[in-house]
Amino acid sequence: MVDVSHKSDAARTAVAAGELETTAEVVALVRADGMPKADVLATARIAGIAGAKKTSELIPLCHQLALSKVDVTFGFTDTTITVEATAKTTGPTGVEMEALTAVAVAGLTLHDMVKAVDPSASMNHVRLLTKDGGKHGHWSRRGSEPTPADTEATADTEATAGESPGIRSAVVLVASTGGANGTRTDTTGPAIATWLTDRDFAVRGPLVYPDAHIADGLTDALTGSPALLVTTGGTGVSPTDATPEATRLVLDRELPGVADAIRAKGTEVTPHAVLSRGLAGVAGRTVVINLPGSPGGVKDGLSVLEPILDHLLAQVAGHGLHDGTKGTP
What we know:
Layout: E1 10-21, H1 24-31, H2 40-53, H3 55-58, E2 67-76, E3 80-91, H4 96-114, E4 122-132, E5 139-140, H5 148-161, E6 168-175, H6 177-181, H7 188-197, E7 201-209, H8 214-222, E8 228-232, H9 243-250, E9 253-254, H10 256-267, E10 280-283, E11 286-291, H11 295-305, H12 309-317
Parallel strand pairs: 6-7, 6-8, 8-11
Antiparallel strand pairs: 1-3, 1-4, 2-3, 4-5, 9-10, 10-11
Helix pairs in contact: 2-4, 8-9, 10-11
């Protein structure tokens, strides 16, 4: 094992992801909790967390770490179940392997749970998304796989440079208890992700968290300080709606004009839009926007963001605009 005794303890976080490629039938059954075995997602989540805790026993020469948090979340496309794991510790070395192991073990558990229906299911693209902490600070995946030669030559540069010029990062966070437990199909998160991808953002998510744990979702989504975080859901007045309260706790500055404009746009379609309590603001260098949980509310909110988003992100980042001037309203 590599001697890390000379390194100082530091808060460290790693996020990894992968996807189980299967059939539309399996995806529908998992979402409806209709598989022959037990609760598929709950079982896979526990397996992933246990796998992270056992990493030093499974991977030779990995250090034993005292994990302070392991979180495993799932998402869906028509024919895939996505897996994302976040691992945190305070120690002398990173938690990349713990996050990757959590994804791999959760994915294998998904395979075991669905193989009776689809024996050809495959777990693919297990990869590290971001890591933070230690000497090199923040590192995030570019979207293209580096060659082994490139990796050694650019590791220090990548770890400290953040994102390459012209690439902006965004995270999509969904507050939905039904979506998190697989009993409700969410369309708003994928719609936001597609909208952002079409505008050349590198998008993480949709991350789906139950309403009661949306504060944890915000912490997860803000890992790595993305340029933009867009949430959907949990902005109403039902007893479980808690997105605005959780968002306010992470904001350094609010942007009430943006939130008001989103509500005003919604009232052109329905008077119920005034009931949305969504916030907008800045957390560090991340712009945070709360959108309603309805497809119409998301569409209206994105139409408000369309003409102002580049200007807003440039201001928050402290960059000049395309005409060489500072972004002063």
